Amino acid sequence: MNHIVPPSLLFDFQLSIPRCADPSPKTIGRLLSMPAGSQLFIPAAMNDLPRFADVSVAWNPDGLAVVISVKGKPMNPTGTSRDIKRSDVTLLWIDTRPAGNVHRATEYCHHFACLPVDEHQDNQPAVVVQPIAQQRTTRIDSSAKHIRTRTHLEKGGYDLEVWIPGTQLHGFREITEIGRIGFYCVVQDSNLGEQPLTLDDNFPTGYDPSMWVHLELTS
Fold first, then answer.
1. Residue 71 CA: distances (Å) to CA of 10, 134, 163
2. Of the CATH numbers 2.40.50.320, 2.60.40.1190, 3.40.50.300, 3.90.1150.200, which one belongs to the domain with range 13-217?
3. Residue 18: closest CA among 50, 59, 55
4. Residue 150: left (phi > 0), alpha (psi -120 to 50), or beta?
5. Is 20 within 8 Å of 218 (Cβ atoms)?
6. Using an 8 Å Cβ cutoff, are 150 and 125 in contact?
7. Which pTM was predicted?
8. pLDDT tens, 31-89?
9. Does residue 25 contact residue 64 with C-beta atoms inside 8 Å?
10. What's residue 38's pLDDT?
11. Coil, strand, or helix at residue 162?
């Protein structure tokens, strides 16, 4: 069904995310222990858009944990950090000072492309720090080498774990007092299409932080 106004646009979504432990120091097994309540509601489902991935987010004062679980995929993920548009990838946008009425990305906004596999890194997961169109300025140069990732291949899909240290997010040091972040994501799959968190690419979600959801940080 085609909607003149997508149903999800009629709501101001504020979702709660729980506090989590630091990532595991082990090099095998699960990187992150995601607590109950970390799986996000996907507003895009209200707009009859594809739904093939679960997105879980948790936090602690040291960083942000994100897990993408893709189901129903007929092939293993593929991709290359040299061609994000043709890769299986999750695009993340994070704002550590969400205001709700600012339409251009500020120095507190960040954008990451997270690949479950990168053929230029022996098919290991990878993160690429991306620019945001029309961003006013940046305060820190986020470095992908400090972001930890782990991919778990499963029949019909995969889990991608991402740990973003607070040092890679300008303004994260004060996040406990602020109590919320702006967040948006798009899961891009070579077999299943694109699953946005809320709206499709007819809307400026990739550079307008007023269209991102607010994640309330709970303890």
1. 28, 34, 21
2. 2.60.40.1190
3. 59
4. beta
5. no
6. yes
7. 0.94
8. 999 999 999 999 998 888 889 999 999 999 999 999 999 999 999 999 999 999 999 99
9. no
10. 98
11. strand
**In sequence order, which residues have a C-beta less than 8 Å from that of residue 122 and are 6 or more positions away?**
none
Structure tokens at 100: 């709700």
Cα distance between residue 112 and residue 132, in whole Å: 10
d(CA 58, CA 142): 20
Say if CB 185 and CB 90 are below 8 A apart: yes
pLDDT digits (tens, 9 = 90+) for 84-114: 999 999 999 999 999 988 999 999 999 999 9
Length of the chain: 219
Token pair 């997508």 in the structure block, residue: 6
E runs forming strands in 61-179 = 63-71, 89-95, 109-118, 124-129, 148-154, 157-165
Structural tokens at position 68:
């993408």
Residue with tokens 């307008």: 208
Amino acid in position 116: P
Write out the two tokens for 64: 């942000």
